Task: structure prediction
Amino acid sequence: MAQWSPTPFQPALYHRHLLERQVHLMIILPGDLKKLPNRQLPNVVTSFNEEGYKRYGEAFIETFLKYWSPGVRLTVFYEGDNFPFTHGLSWVPIEKVALLADYLGNLRFPIMHGIVGNHYNIQFDARQARKVFIEMHALKMYGGKVFWIDADTITHSHVPETFLDDVLPDGDFCCFLGRDGWFYTETGFIGYNANHPIASKFIKNYLNLYVTGVNFTMPGWHDCYGFDAIRRQVFGDTNEFINLAEGLPHGTMHPFVNSICGKYMDHRKGKRKDSRSTSADLVVKRTEEYWATPQDSTAPA
Result:
């Protein structure tokens, strides 16, 4: 079977400010969305810097545009100046995200970056909580349903147009990949519904947990611990929160690929960033072509 290769994908490079001034029509800017009457598209958001784009973001974008419906709007919150911009999605500079610059600016000690002695410990890397600010910013900016997908994810199969509504019905507020009872939530895929009655309360509490520094009182300082704290302690883990990983065996470390998400995507997290998830990560039987291909390939041809 032929192996997928990203080499044909070669976007032009533009300086960010020149692009915004001279070729702005290729970007969907937030202000333009308000001009579209009666249109509330489902939104997927992600983020990366220039190094992250080269390592995994390029594959994220290429496979997203190939396999997702044009009716789903993709927004990249990007970090950097000279950046590769691609047609067919929205690009927003990370500086536009409310409260994020102040939060990151206050992380002044090495331990807040996960540096413990001579080692890195992701549990104490408070920079990982930047996605909290991006998600809540997008939720307020776009309204409707907003889904975060980690940028080290590829899409390997065509995603049904109804997929996002299926995993997050209109009457619910949030879908997530929980590992309740033994570990924190895996936040590589998470969705919110801004039209739900509890949305504003959730946004306020989630942001305040990090703005006020309450996250530094928890066992881990990143977004996973904060999400679980707000979900359980403020909302009592109510039915408005849908656990897409419910029913997976206790101890399943990679709920993303073992949930409905794995039918269409692979989250190449951690050491998998330069490879892929393998059969060793699966605790459920997957029949999709991607999972039957050689383990060193990235996506089907």
Residues 13-292 form a domain with the Spore Coat Polysaccharide Biosynthesis Protein SpsA; Chain A fold (CATH 3.90.550). Residues 77 and 204 are 21 Å apart (CA to CA).
